[in-house]
Specification:
This protein is mainly alpha-helical and 262 residues long. 65% of the residues lie in helices and 0% in strands. The longest helix is centred in the C-terminal third of the chain and has 32 residues. InterPro entries: Homeodomain-like_sf (IPR009057), HTH-type_TetR-like_transc_reg (IPR050109), HTH_TetR (IPR001647), Repressor_TetR_C (IPR004111), Tet_transcr_reg_TetR-rel_C_sf (IPR036271). Keywords: DNA-binding, Transcription, Transcription regulation. It holds the Pfam family TetR_C_1.
Amino acid sequence: MAKERSGAGDPARTLELLWREPAPADAPPRRGPKQGLSVDAVVQAAIALADSGGLEALTMRGVAQRLGVTPMTLYTYVPAKAELLDLMLDTAYLEMERADRSGRPAAPWRARVEAVARENLELCRRHPWVATLPATRPPLGPGVIAKYEHELAAFEGLGLDDIEIDAALTFLLDFVRATARAELDAQAAGRDSAMSDAQWWEAHAPLLAKVLDAERYPLAARVGSAAGEAHQGSYNPEYAFRFGLARVLDGLGALIESRAAS
């Protein structure tokens, strides 16, 4: 679990930065050298650093080196790492690809919700740190608000009340986040072992065959063999996503049908 989380910085200053509000007129002048960068440049450098090395690699010093400035220079743009994380997350949300639903007939609700899920999975694949950053207090910036508005629309007109719409979206996004994190774990295991999942299981197959008694563990032997052969390993991220998403949609479908029948 990452130690960093969203919403840990100064709320007032974070909102000013998220919406690029100027400092109050009565605020004391900022000390330090004349600014030659921008908040956007700092955020983009931080995103690039986190994309390549994860949140563990994200430090104010590392961002400063990437920009060719001293660490103290960054503090004239962003107060601390906590506020920087909020800016990064909101920017990632603002820039993520989203289906344009304007000017066309509404797609079936399952297709709309599936599109939301895939948009978020692709976001996590493009910026893996997003899946590892707890966001129970999301930064209330333009990216978060635009994303929320877009995704809520997938559930509009289905007979759910506003609280259920919010809960349904949360349920969907929690599933995507969990799936994305499992995919990251599988990738990390491959890097750490210098072996693909299929190679790892092939190397351990002789030992497994010795210790796994099919008579004592018949279900484990049968199901494990079938799944391993189908996935060429213990885990297939795309299959897990498709299977899980279908079950999420089935569950939401039962709720929607129950509201229509009442």
